[in-house]
Design goal:
alpha/beta; 4 domains; 21 helices; 25 strands; 32% helix; binds S-adenosylmethionine
Length: 675
């Protein structure tokens, strides 16, 4: 059994500490005995392999970049708690969807242990920093210049200049970059290896964003940029209207299934053949240079076709050896006179740029799969086409012809037309009032871009949820294609301005708008699709102040204790439990089961037993050991208890008893004293 003591989120990080820890774990030989990094050793390792070294290098630097790196590494300052009333409602209690209230940087930091490599698709629509969208950098970290200088590894002057904008609320490019960089950095950690991220942006920050996305995701992982034509008529610049914004698309890594695929559905004409229905496919010829008979001498047979009986057969009526050099039909081919006398016409492979052509199927395949071939008269001869049979139920009549719907696979177009007015109207109709939220995205635009992700059972994340358009789009897509995508939306409780419509209607903050929209959209979708049994509910969590946090002025590299002994309120108790489960790797939707130990309430989540309450008695310990012994379904691999609520004698008793038990049974049981 292993026992250790830890303080939740107590690690003090510097701008590069997490990255260095990865290097140290994988390349210990690159560090000297005092832990200093030896750059040359890493170069030696790289040089000895086939890696090509580039001598060119460029990057985007700004005032605050090292601070942004530090922000990505620092632990969260908050705890997470659930909205029990909402989550226990019938429609939400089994839901796998989440809406989380709080600053997304805090929430992403909480999520990183449990959700690392679990998210298939991220969509974000961050503040564009237009000058009128209210973006101003806000930061409540409260570092002194000395602290920041030490933790970020920068000089005092730079630290002072950075703190100047973090305190004042700047909307400079540097401030915007400092805001977005750590969020994208952590977002990448949440993506699955085949995950993709879509980021909406306009021309105010596209240049900056593209370069840091190349840095964070890798230039080779850019999937392209979509221009979203907003179909508006607004002239909001001096010379050129702004009728579009952009969508940057990146994948996490180069794996084939991290690509985007556009499945388009089109109507295709259907033909009937003796009560069976079919659609036409390609001809069995190729038009490229490789499609000549000279290059494919075995594929030059003639198809003899009887126009009245529609019978046909492939006949090898040519000189195969001559076929590799000559392009004279008279010399290479000799007609089958008998078939011609019986009314057959000859169909030879169409010529390719003046040269004799070839089929793509060999004669054996051709004659054995005749049912999959159809011969059609054209203006200047006959076409030999493949055909695919379809079921009668898939055929419909339009005018005097028959049609079916065919799904085709392709790439997305890079210019997409989706009206922003429609987005506004969609939101107004759901909330029953216009102007509650400015510029919500068009749900159909989001449905289209999400449908490019070639899976339909995954976790989707939007950490700038706004009015919740993307969350509605996920629900609608699931209804359309039977998918089981789960959404996670994150939205800060940004106050609604006192002169806004939202405020007049009683919404105190944007989070309340998000929540209302998803509830209302769920109700509307259920009404329109009464037989749909998919997940239209969602659970709510929110960040709360960490009651364990001491004054942050004590946060330095050498001093990082956090807690005083405390008596927990029920809210603090719940927030510790929720935060711990997530911190230990359980999804927020994982069930937490109460375990009764002779009146002492413990909690079991994904094989970990949590003991938070005070008054853990010797009787409770006895029941715990009995339960471990006799209840086959009760087999935790880790026991975590709240150190502040276990005086040291009780800690020792628990420790000894569990150690003896684990040794006797030869099982691995970790014991963690957590503060
Ligand atoms: C451009 S809007 C997103 C609009 C959304 N796509 C829609 O269609 O409704 C950006 C949203 O991000 C929110 N936001 C800004 N900073 C945030 C932060 N640090 N954490 C969470 N949300 C934030 C804003 O309150 C705003 O609602």
């Amino acid at each position: 059994m292993n026992t250790h003591t830890e303080t939740l989120f107590s690690e003090v990080e510097t701008a590069n500490s997490k990255q260095l820890a990865v290097l140290k774990a994988n390349f210990p030989q690159c560090f000297d005995k005092n832990g200093a990094f030896i750059q040359e050793k890493l170069l030696e390792i790289v040089k000895s392999s086939d890696v090509e070294l580039s001598k060119e290098s460029y990057s985007l630097n700004w005032l605050g970049k090292s601070y942004a790196r530090l922000l990505a590494n620092l632990p969260p300052k908050t705890l997470l708690t659930e909205d029990k009333d909402h989550n226990q409602r019938e429609e939400n209690k089994n839901s796998q969807n989440l809406l989380i209230k709080g600053d997304n940087l805090e929430v992403l930091k909480h999520m990183v242990n449990a959700y690392a490599e679990k998210v298939k698709m991220i969509y974000i629509d961050p503040p564009y920093n237009t000058g009128s969208d209210g973006f101003a950098y806000n930061d409540d970290r409260n570092f002194t210049p000395e602290q920041l200088s030490e933790l970020a590894g920068i000089d005092l002057d730079e630290a002072t200049r950075i703190l100047d904008f973090t305190v004042k609320g700047s909307s400079s490019h540097s401030a915007w970059l400092t805001f977005i960089y750590p969020r994208l950095y952590i977002a990448r950690e949440l993506l699955r290896e085949n995950g993709v991220i879509f980021i909406s942006i306009d021309d105010n920050e596209i240049s900056q964003l593209k370069i840091i996305c190349d840095e964070i995701f890798g230039e080779a992982n850019s999937l392209g940029i979509i221009i979203h034509n907003k179909l508006n008529s607004k002239s909001d610049t001096l010379n050129i209207q702004k009728n579009h914004d952009f969508l940057l698309c990146y994948r996490k890594s180069i794996t084939p299934d991290a690509s985007l695929i556009n499945y388009s559905v089109s109507e295709q004409e259907v033909f009937e053949d003796n009560g069976r229905f079919y659609i036409l496919k390609d001809s069995i010829t190729t038009r490229g240079d490789g499609g000549t008979l000279n290059k494919r001498k075995n594929l030059g047979y003639t198809v003899y076709y009887h126009p009245e009986t529609t019978d046909f057969i492939g006949v090898s009526d040519y000189d195969i050896e001559l076929a590799s050099s000559s392009n004279s039909e008279e010399k290479v081919y000799s007609d089958n006179e008998e078939l011609i006398a019986n009314g057959y016409v000859k169909i030879r492979p169409p010529k390719v740029r003046g040269k004799l052509g070839a089929w793509t199927w060999d004669i054996k395949k051709f004659n054995s799969e005749k049912d999959n071939i159809v011969i059609r008269k054209t203006n200047n001869g006959y076409q030999v086409r493949k055909r695919t049979f379809i079921e009668k139920k898939d055929v419909f009549k339009k005018a005097d012809s028959l049609y079916t719907k065919v799904k085709a696979k392709g790439n997305s177009r890079s210019i997409l037309d989706y009206s922003t007015n429609d987005g506004t109207n969609q939101l107004s109709s759901i909330l029953g009032h216009p102007d509650v939220f400015s510029n919500p995205k068009n749900v159909n635009y989001l449905k289209y871009i999400f449908s490019l992700v070639p899976e339909n059972n995954y976790i989707a994340l939007d950490f700038f949820a706004g009015s919740g358009s993307s969350l509605q789009a996920i629900c609608e897509l699931n209804i359309d294609d039977g998918g089981i995508r789960k959404f996670i939306g994150i939205q800060i409780d940004e106050k609604c301005k006192s002169d806004s419509t939202a405020f007049d209607l009683g919404y105190k903050n944007i989070f309340e708008v998000t929540k209302k929209r998803i509830i209302k959209a769920g109700e509307k979708l259920k009404k329109e699709n009464p037989d749909y049994n998919g997940d239209l509910g969602f659970k709510i969590f929110e960040t709360v102040n960490d009651f364990r946090t001491k004054d942050e002025s004590e946060l330095t590299l050498s001093n990082h204790t956090f807690f005083d002994d405390v008596v927990l309120t029920p809210e603090q108790y719940d927030s510790l439990l929720t935060t711990w489960c997530l911190y230990d790797g359980s999804l927020l939707t994982a069930p937490i089961e109460d375990v009764d130990l002779n009146g002492y309430k413990a909690h079991l989540c994904d094989g970990r037993l949590y003991l938070i309450a005070p008054n853990f008695t010797s009787e409770a310990l006895k029941v715990l050991l009995q339960k471990l012994d006799s209840d086959k379904d009760f087999a935790p691999n880790k026991v975590v208890f709240y150190g502040s609520n276990f005086e040291s004698a009780k800690q020792m008793e628990l420790n000894e008893a569990l150690k003896n038990y684990a040794n006797k049974k030869s099982i691995d049981l970790d014991l963690v004293v957590r503060n």
